[in-house]
Design goal:
By secondary structure, this protein is of the alpha/beta class. The chain has a single domain, classed as TIM Barrel (Alpha-Beta Barrel). An eight-stranded parallel β-sheet has the order 1-2-3-4-5-6-7-8, with helices on both faces. Helix 4 runs parallel beside helix 5. The radius of gyration is 17 Å and the shape is globular. The two termini are 19 Å apart. The structure holds zinc ion. The site of zinc ion (ZN) has 5 residues, from loops.
Length: 271
């Protein structure tokens, strides 16, 4: 068994919380020892903060997700700024752009999505925090904005889909590339080629649970963070390094980019 960190898990989602405490026990028994829990919208921040306070190995990230662009407000950005000070999340996220959404719908225009993204990148820059980025059909634009904003804190582009050139533009900006359940599908040839081509130092593992189910999962079942070893297993087949090496390096990558090694730990809290 290898020690792993799920760099992207919506742990506060009711579908996962309904499986507790057994699900966390299962994670531990599968070697999934830490979770990064990204935020999605202001309405869920309190729930998410309360859950992450239960265990120092459940790492809080706070942000306003592009899926909910029509829900966000300027007040939510101000509240996020305050929550960053009060609750010290490990990153601002998940934030980003999703051009696969219908951008003609009210609240989801490119301008509105970019407005929330830019405001939150500025917060992250000010707080010197990395960002967790959601990118669908928006890699080039996101890279452009991060450059324009002179954002130099790095982060993770999660559930990445795109070309090797686009991935490299992010890694040059200090980002890691997140791979998850998509890798387990035989038809995902492009993403598999990318996972083979990138240096191991650029890769982090994620489930995006309860979304992005693994190939072998029965339809309709939520994805779970204890399935993370399956992603490791596929990478082990694709890449020249040993499974142990991949586990260790991707863990190190996640801890480094989110600076989890250097944060003051509160080891008094129970597992
Ligand atoms: Zn997500």
């Amino acid at each position: 068994m290898h020690q792993l960190i799920d760099s992207h898990c919506h742990w506060d989602d009711s579908r996962l919380q309904a499986l507790q405490p057994h699900l966390w026990q299962s994670c531990i028994s599968q070697g999934v020892q830490q979770l990064v829990v990204p935020g999605t919208q202001w309405a869920f921040f309190a729930r998410q903060i309360a859950i992450c306070e239960q265990n120092p190995l459940w790492h809080l990230a706070l942000g306003l997700h592009p899926y909910f662009s029509d829900q966000h407000s300027s007040q939510h950005v101000l509240d996020l700024a305050k929550a960053i000070v009060d609750y010290k999340p490990v990153a601002v996220g998940e934030i980003g752009l999703d051009f696969a959404l219908d951008t003609t719908r009210e609240g989801f225009s490119i301008a509105e999505q970019e407005r929330w993204f830019i405001a939150q990148v500025k917060l992250a820059k000010h707080a010197r925090l990395p960002v967790i980025v959601h990118s669908r059909k928006a890699n080039d634009r996101l890279g452009q904005l991060l450059r324009q904003l002179k954002f130099d804190q790095g982060g993770i582009v999660h559930g990445f889909s795109g070309s090797i050139q686009q991935a490299q533009k992010f890694t040059q900006l200090g980002f890691k590339i997140g791979f998850g359940g998509t890798l387990t599908y035989d038809r995902a040839q492009a993403i598999r080629r990318l996972a083979m081509a990138l240096p191991l130092t650029d890769i982090v593992l994620e489930t995006d649970a309860p979304d992005m189910p693994m190939a072998e999962q029965p339809k309709g079942q939520p994805n779970q963070p204890d399935k993370l070893p399956r992603v490791l297993e596929v990478l082990g087949v694709l890449r020249p390094e040993s499974i142990a090496q991949i586990a260790m390096q991707t863990m190190t990558n996640t801890l480094e980019v989110l600076r989890l090694n250097t944060r003051p730990s509160n080891s008094s809290t129970q597992l």
